[in-house]
Amino acid sequence: MGKRPSWTALAGLVTSSVMTPPLLAAPPESLPAAQLDWRPWGEDRPAGALCRGRYVMPDYRLAPPPAGRVASEADSGQYGADGETLLSGEVVLRRADTQLEAPRVRLPASRERVFAEGPVALRDRNLLVRGAAAEFSLESDDASIDTAHYVAHEQRLRGDAVRLARVAEDRYRLTEASFTTCEPGSDLWRLVGNDILLDRRRGYGTATHARLEVGKVPVFYWPWVRFPLDDRRQTGFLWPTLGFSGDSVDYAQPFYWNIAPNQDATLTPRWISNRGWLLGAEYRYLFPSDAGTLEGAYIADDRQAGEEASAGSELENGDARWYIDARHAGRFDPRTRYRLRYGAASDGAYFDDFGLTFGEQDTDSLARLARLDYRGDVWRLEAKAQGYQKLEDPLDEGDKPFYRLPSLTADARWRQDSGFYQEWGSNLTYFWRDIEGDENGLYDFAGGQRRIPIREAANGARLRLTPATGWRFDDTWGFLEPRLEVAHIAYDLDYGARDTERPEGPSQTVPIASLDGGLVFERDLALGGDAFRQTLEPRLNYAYVSARDQSDFPDFDTKERAFSWNQLWSPYRFTGGDRIGDLNRFSYGTESRLLEDASGRERLSLGVGQAVYFEDRTIDLGGDPDTLPSEQNFPRFYDATRDRSPWVTRLDWRVTDHWRTRWEWLYDDHLSRTERTSLGLQYRADAGHVLNLGYNWELEGFSPAEDEEDVRGYDREDYDLSFALKATPRLDVIGRVLYDNTNDRMLEQLAGVQWNDCCYGLQLVWREWIDDEDTANTIADDTTDRGFFLRFVFKGLGGVGGEADTHFREAIPGYRSTAFGRP
C-alpha cells in the first residue's frame, strides 16, 4: 500500500513580477461611502449581520412619465436658435426607470441623446452610477459615463471604471474597471480587468486580462474569467487547488458546466508531478421522477503505480488507473421506487493514492446495486441485485464479498381490531463470489498459505421464511404482547472443487417465542416551579429459541450482535439470515421518564435492566448446538455460559435547553467489572457554541469479531473532546482531541478557525489522525496522516480550497458551519 502523503488544499496563486501593458488597468479611486448609497447600521442592525451597513436606493425624484416620454426638472433652461436646449442647476431627467441627475445637461435639437457634465448620477432599478460626464439615449438603453463609480444594491457589489457603457437592458461594459463585494472603504479584494462585462439579467460577468488584488497586491491573473453576480449557477472555471507531498506537486483545475437548470457537470484536469495527468469528471441530473450522478477519473500512465504498491500487488509503473461511480434513483409511482448504482476501480489502492481529502473517511468499497421496492398497505416487496468491490491491494481471497444475484423479499402484515396480527416474511437470495482455492480451501497470499473456512466456501441459494402471529394489547397504563414466529431456512449449495461431505441442501425450522409486557405509572411532579409528568415503566420479557443444528449451514451475511439495552428485549442474537441463535432468557427492567407537562417533551429517561439465562448459548457462527467455545477463549466461553447478563443502565437527560448528557453502563455483577460504558456531555448555545465531552470504555472481547485480525486484544478506553466557539458573529474556533488511553496515543487532533466577514470567508484547519489499516488488534501497522486545510472565499467571485464542512460536522456533533454565501 502506498504511503499516504500529507497535503494542503490551496489555490494556485500566480503573481507576475513583469506586468505587461494589458495587466496595467488602472481604475479610478473609489468614492466615499456616503456617495454610494451606503447606510451604516444603527439600532436596527439585524442579529448576526456581518457587514457594517447596507446599500439603500433612495426614491426617484420624479414620478414616472408616460411611456416613451421624458420628464425633466431644472433650475433654469436656455433654448438656442438651432433648437438645442441647455438645462442647468439641479437638473433631473427621467425616462422609464432611468433617472439622470447633473448640474448641466445639453439636449440637441434632435432630442435623441442627452449630454451631461458632472458630477452626474445615473440610476436604474437598484443601480447607481456616478461619474464625471455622461451621455445617454432617449430612444434606447444606450448610455456611457466617464470616470464611473457604480453600485448594484441587491447584489451588494460595487466598482470603479475609466468608462462605463450600458449596451443593452441590464448589460454594462466597463473599461479599465474593478469589481468587488467588499463594503465601501474596504480594499480587501477586488477584481481588476481591462474589459469587464456585467450581465445582470443572466447573472454573470466576464473580464479579460483580469487580475485579483488582495489588499491591492496582485496575486492571480486570468486572460479571461467568468464570475457570478448572484446565486445562479454559471458555467466557468472554478478555483484550482494545489497540494504538496514531499517532492510531488498536485494541481487540479475544475471547470463547471451549467448544462441546463436540471443538469450540470464538472471536469477536473489534474496534474500530479510524479504520476502524470489525471482527468476527473462528475455529471449530475435531476428530473421530476428520478435523479442521479455519474463520476469517475482516469490516468493513462501512472508513473509511480508500482513504486508505492504494497507487497504482493500486481501494480506496475505505467499502468492505467481509473474509477467510476454511477448512481440513479427514481420512482414509477408513489409506492414503487428503484435505485441503481455501479462502482468500480482499476485496483484496490486507487483511493489510497488518488482519493485523499482533508476529512477522509475510509473508502474501503464501491457499491453495486439494482433495487426495486414496492410499499403497499399490506405488502412490502423488494427485488435487488447487490454487491460491492472491496478496495484492498492485494485482495485476500477470503475477504472477497458475496454478491446477491438476486435477492427477492416479500413481507406482509395484517392486523385486526381485536389486537391480533399476522406477519409474513420471506426472502430468497442467491449468493455468489469468485474465489480461488484447492480442494482443501488453501490459497497463496502474502508469502504463505491461507484457508477459506468451509462455511464460507460455497455459492448457493438461501430461502428464509418467517411467518409470525401475535396479539398486542396497548393502553395508556401498559401493554402486553405474546408472539410466536417460525423461522425456516433452506439452502441449495454448490461447493465446486472443495472437498467436503457437507450436504448441499441443508434446512432447519426453528420456533421463536416471546412474551413482552409492561406497565406505565404516572404522576404529576413540580420541579423548580415547572410542571412535569413522571412515569415509572417496569417491563418484563421472556424469549425462547431452541438450539437446532446449523453446523452445515454456510455463512453468507451473518454477524453476532454485541449486548446492549435493546438486546434485553429482542430474541435475535445474530444479524443476517444464516444463524438463529438459541435463547432461553428472562429480562426485567424499568424505565422512568420525565415529561414537560405543557409540551410533552422528554426531559429525562433513566432505564435499568438485566437478563437471566436458563440455558447456555451454544449456537455461534459455527452453528453446532453441542459444542461450546473453548475455555481457553475465556471471553467467548464466559459469554456463552454465564447465567445472567450484565446490568444495563442508560440515561438520557436534557438538563436544560442547552445542556444534555447521555450515559450507558454495562456492569457484570458476577465478576464485579464494567464491560462497557460510554458517557457523553453536550452543550449547545443559541449563539452557536458547542461543547462535547465523551468517554468510552469497552472490555476486551466485548464486541464479537469473526476475523482474527479484527479481534481486539486489549481493553479499549478513549476520551473525546470537541468544541466550536462562535467568538464573534464573524469568528468560529473549532477543535477536537480523540485520545486512546489504552495505547497512550492521539487518534485524532483537529484545530482551526473560520472567519466569515462581509465580503470574504476563511477556514484554516490542521488535522492529524491515525488509520488502523483495518486491523484493529495490530497497532504496529497503523499509519499517521496529517492535513492542513485552507479555504478562502471571495464572496461573489469564488474561493480557494474545497469543502470540508461534512467532516467538521461529524467530528464536532452539533456544530453547523456558517455558510460562505454572498454578503
Summarize the structure.
The protein has a domain of 138 residues. The protein is an all-beta fold and 823 residues long.
Largest sheet: 33 strands, mixed
Strand content: over 45%
Give helix % range.
Answer: under 10%
SS-based structural class?
mainly beta
**How many DSSP-defined strands?**
51
The radius of gyration is 35 Å
- Per the principal axes of the C-alpha atoms, what is the gross shape? elongated
Poorly predicted runs? 1-21
- Determine the number of helices (DSSP H or I, runs of at least 4 residues): 3
Q: How far apart are the first and last residues' alpha carbons, in Å?
A: 45 Å
Summarize model confidence as the mean pLDDT: 88
Structure characterization notes:
It comes from Halomonas stenophila. Component of the lipopolysaccharide transport and assembly complex. Interacts with LptE and LptA. Keywords: Cell outer membrane, Membrane, Signal. The chain has 823 residues and is an all-beta fold. It has a domain at 685-822. It contains three helices and 51 strands. The chain has a 33-stranded mixed β-sheet that branches. The longest helix has 8 residues, at 634-641. The protein is elongated. Residues 1-21 have low confidence and may be disordered.
Question: Which helices and strands appear, and what pairs or packs with what?
Answer:
Layout: E1 7-9, E2 38-40, E3 53-55, E4 71-73, E5 76-79, E6 85-95, E7 98-107, E8 113-124, E9 127-137, E10 143-152, E11 157-168, E12 171-179, E13 189-199, E14 204-214, E15 217-228, E16 236-237, E17 241-245, E18 248-252, E19 255-260, E20 263-272, E21 276-286, E22 290-302, E23 319-333, E24 336-345, H1 350-354, E25 365-375, E26 379-390, E27 403-415, E28 420-432, E29 442-445, E30 448-451, E31 459-465, E32 468-471, E33 473-475, E34 478-494, E35 507-519, E36 521-527, E37 530-545, E38 559-560, E39 574-575, E40 583-596, E41 602-613, H2 634-641, E42 647-653, E43 659-668, E44 673-684, E45 690-698, E46 716-726, E47 731-740, E48 745-756, E49 760-771, E50 783-794, E51 798-800, H3 805-811
Parallel strand pairs: 1-50
Antiparallel strand pairs: 2-3, 4-6, 5-6, 6-7, 7-8, 8-9, 9-10, 10-11, 11-12, 12-13, 13-14, 14-15, 16-19, 17-18, 18-20, 19-20, 20-21, 21-22, 22-23, 23-24, 24-25, 25-26, 26-27, 27-28, 28-31, 28-32, 29-30, 31-34, 32-34, 33-34, 34-35, 35-37, 36-37, 37-40, 38-39, 40-41, 41-42, 42-43, 43-44, 44-45, ...
